[in-house]
Amino acid sequence: MSGRVGDLSVKQSQLLEKFRLNVSDILEPKHDDHFLLRWLRARCFDLKKSEAMLRNHLAWRKKVGADTILEDCVLPEVITTYYAGGWCGFDKEGDPVWVDPVGRLDLKGIAHSAKKEDIIKSKIMCVERGYRMMADQSKKLGKRVSQLCIIFDMEGFGMKHLWKPGVDIFCEILEMFESNYPETLKRCYVINAPKIFPLAYHIVKPILSEDTKNKIKVLGSNWKERVLRDIDPNEIPLYWGGTRTDPDGNPFCKSKVCIGGEVPKSYYLREKDQLSSEYLVKSVIKKGSMLPVELEVNEPGCAIRWEFHTENHDIGYAIYYKTSPGEQNVSDMEVVVGNKRVNSHLVPEDGTVYCSKAGIYVFCFDNSYSWTRSKTVLYVIEVIHPETPSAMCNGYTQEDGNE
C-alpha cells in the first residue's frame, strides 16, 4: 500500500486515526487526510516521529510567516533578477514543473549582494507559490495535486559552484525543504550533468531522505526524449525540450524562468566577508618561509577545496602533486595550481581544483617573498570525495532515456 488516501492498509488506517487524535490540538480545518498522511509517510508511519515533525513544521511556519509570505515579503532586486529558476507548465498528470538552470547560477555573487535570510525566504516563496499552484490545479482538475517536478539543468556547472559558503547556503535550503515540505517532490530530472556531478551529489547526499534520493533521475544525452515522456512539449520551454516560447520567441521563456547569470559587482553589499566554516586552522607563517599542508587523495575524481584569509597582509599560495614518496622539495613536484599572491586580508580567498589522479597533494602557503613580516592565516582545506559506483546505486538513478 502506498500510504495515500484510497490506498491504505488496515494498519495504516488505524495509525492515521491515532495520529489525528494525537495532534488534534494543532489541526485546522484545512488539515485533511492528505495532509496528515504526508507526515506519516515521511516518517514511515512512526507516530512519535511524525508528530514531532509536524509540530516542528507548524512552529516553523509561524516563525517565518509562511502563510502570508507571498503577500508580505519583498525580495531584493538582485534575487529577483539573478536567482535562476522558475515555474513553467505542468506534467501530464497536472503537477507543476520547476525549471532550474543551476549551472547558470552565480550564488557567490548573490551571497555577496543579499542577506542569507533573504535568499532563504526566496526559496520558501518558491515552494509556497508551488503549493498554491497545486491547490488551483486540484480545483481545476477535480483531483488532488500535491507534488511537483523539477528539471535541474547543470549545463555550465563547474568548480566555482562548489564555493563553500554557497554550498553551505544550498545545504541549509535543502535541510529546510526536507524538514518542512516532505513527500512533495515527484521527480527530479538532472540533465547535462558534468563529470564533477558525483562530487556535488556527495556533499548534499547526507541531507536527502531515501525517498528524495530515489526520485532523482540523472539522464543521458537523449534527456529530451525522457522528459517528454512525462511532460507535454507545449508545457515547457523550447530550450529544455518543449515547444513553448515567450511572445518574442525567446526559447528560455524568460518571462517564467530566470536564467541567472553573473551578478554585477555593483550589487555587492560588502567586499570583506568572514569565513563561513567553524573548522578553521590558525597558523603563523614566518617571514621568508612557506607552510605546506599535505592532503591525501585516495582516488581520481576527488576535489580539493580551500578557503582562507590573512589578518593583515597578502600571502602567496600554490598547489603541487608529489611525484615521489618521502621528502620532496616543491620545486621538484608537479604544479597543479601555479603560485599566486592574493590580498586575502581584504577579501577571503577560496577555490576548488579537480584531482585527476590519486596521491599526495601539497597546498603551500608562500611567504618566502617577505623578509620583514610574518603572516597569520586562518584556513580550511578539505578533500571532497566522489561517489563510488556502489554508492551511486543507493543514491540517484542514472537513466539513458531509452528504457
Overall description:
The protein is of the alpha/beta class and 403 residues long. The chain folds into 3 domains: 10-64, N-terminal domain of phosphatidylinositol transfer protein sec14p (Helicase, Ruva Protein, domain 3, Orthogonal Bundle); 67-269, CRAL-TRIO lipid binding domain (Phosphatidylinositol Transfer Protein Sec14p, 3-Layer(aba) Sandwich), CATH 3.40.525; 277-296 and 359-384, no CATH class. The chain is built from 12 helices and 14 strands. The protein has helices spanning 10-22, 33-42, 47-64, 69-72, 77-82, 107-113, 116-141, 164-180, 197-204, 210-214, 223-228, 389-393; strands spanning 86-90, 96-100, 148-153, 185-191, 216-219, 281-285, 290-297, 303-310, 315-321, 334-342, 349-354, 359-366, 375-384, 397-399. A 6-stranded mixed beta sheet has the order 1-2-3-4-5-14. Strand 1 (86-90) and strand 2 form a beta hairpin. Helix 2 (33-42) crosses helix 3 (47-64). The protein is elongated. It starts with 9 loop residues before the first helix and ends with a strand. Residues 389-394 have low confidence and may be disordered.
